[in-house]
Structures are given as C-alpha cells and as structure tokens.
Amino acid sequence: MSETEKTKAEQNSSLEPGPAGPNVTLIEDYLSVLIMGILACITFANVLVRYFTNQSFAWTEEISIFFLIIVTMVGASSAFVRHQHIRIEYFAEKGSAVKTWWFSFLSNLSVLLFFVLFWVLSLKMVFDDYEFGDTSPAIGVPNWWYSMWMPVFSLLITLRIAGVLWRLLKVKPQ
User: Fold this and answer.
1) Are 157 and 80 in contact (CB under 8 A)?
2) CB-side exposure of 47: number of CA atoms within 13 Å?
3) Cα-based torsion angle of the residue sequence 151, 152, 153, 157 in order, rounded to the nearest 10 degrees
4) 142: CB partners within 8 A, 6+ apart
5) H-run or E-run covering 14
6) What is the DSSP string of 33-79?
7) Measured distance CA(167)–CA(162) in Å, rounded
C-alpha cells in the first residue's frame, strides 16, 4: 500500500464514529453467549434422547428456531454498533473523506428506515397472532409468545442505529 493510500485510509477511518463507550456492546455479547449456550444444551439433549430412544423432543426445533432468530438480531445490533456490518468496502473506503462520510451516512440511514418498517410490520404480526389465537404446532403455546420479541429487538436495533447516526453526525467533515 502506497503512502498516499495509507493516509487516505487513516483519514477515512477517522470519520467512522467510535462506539459510545468501551462496554457499548456488553449487553449484546452476554446475551449472545447465553442464548448460544442454551441453544447448544437443548440441541445436545435432543441428540442424546434421539440416540438412546430413537425419538426426539418435538419442542426443541421450535425453541431452537426462536433462539436462532433472537441471536441473529442481537448479533446484527452488535455488528452495527461495531461497524462490522456488511457493506461494500470498495465504495466505503474509496474516495474523499466527504464522499466516504456521505456513503456511511446514507447506508446507515437506509438501514434505520428498514428497521423502523420492520418494527411496524412485526408489531402488526404480533397483534394478528394475538387476535387470531394462533398456536405453535409442537408445544401448542400462543405464537405471539415467540413473535413478540421481533418488534422488541427491531426497536432496539433501530435505537442502536440511531445512536450510530448521531455519532456520525458529530464527525461530519467540512
């Protein structure tokens, strides 16, 4: 990498707002570890039961899918705060500081709008599940017990992305 490219990369990286503090993703980290531990225990128990009895717990698949969705949303929140989400590095790292800032701002704004829409639609889904009394096939519990977490976590991701945008506005280049 040439000296000019190094200088440009350092200049553009200084435009990325840092996390709000050193432990900004501590909640997501602990929650991810907890959920993955529970998921591993449930799956291992199901493997043992299936091996010894030739039958499986019907509820484990249902719970595992629920936990996988939650850990995905928690991981997405952590990735946005750490600036490790999927983006096109060619565009994100090339160009002037102003261009890089605008690219980062617009991409985060579009993600924010997506999660606001996702929050509204998942909230509607929860109300529909509650109103119509849908139940899960394996356990027979109301579906809204599972679906109520989608708007909660999408709102938390929305707030996290709003924080990223706020910090990004603080470092806007002139």
Assistant:
1) yes
2) 6
3) 90
4) 129, 130, 133, 134, 135, 136
5) none
6) HHHHHHHHHHHHHHHHHHHHHS---THHHHHHHHHHHHHHHHHHHHH
7) 9
What's the CA gap between 6 and 24, in Å, rounded? 28
Domain extents in the chain: 22-170
Angle between helices 149-170 and 59-82 (to 10 degrees): 10
* φ, ψ for residue 2, nearest 5 deg: -75, 165
List phi, psi (to 5°) of 142: -60, 140
On the CB side of 167, how many CA atoms lie within 13 Å of its CA? 18
CA 162 to chain CA centroid, Å, is 14
Alpha carbons within 13 A on the beta-carbon side of 83: 18
Written as one letter, the residue type at 120 is V
The tens place of each residue's pLDDT in the chain, 174 residues long, gives: 555 555 554 544 555 555 555 667 788 889 999 999 999 999 999 899 989 998 878 788 889 999 999 999 999 888 888 877 776 677 667 778 888 888 888 888 999 999 999 999 999 999 999 999 999 888 889 999 999 999 999 999 999 999 989 999 998 887
Distance between CA 53 and CA 59 in Å, rounded?
Answer: 16
pTM of the model: 0.77
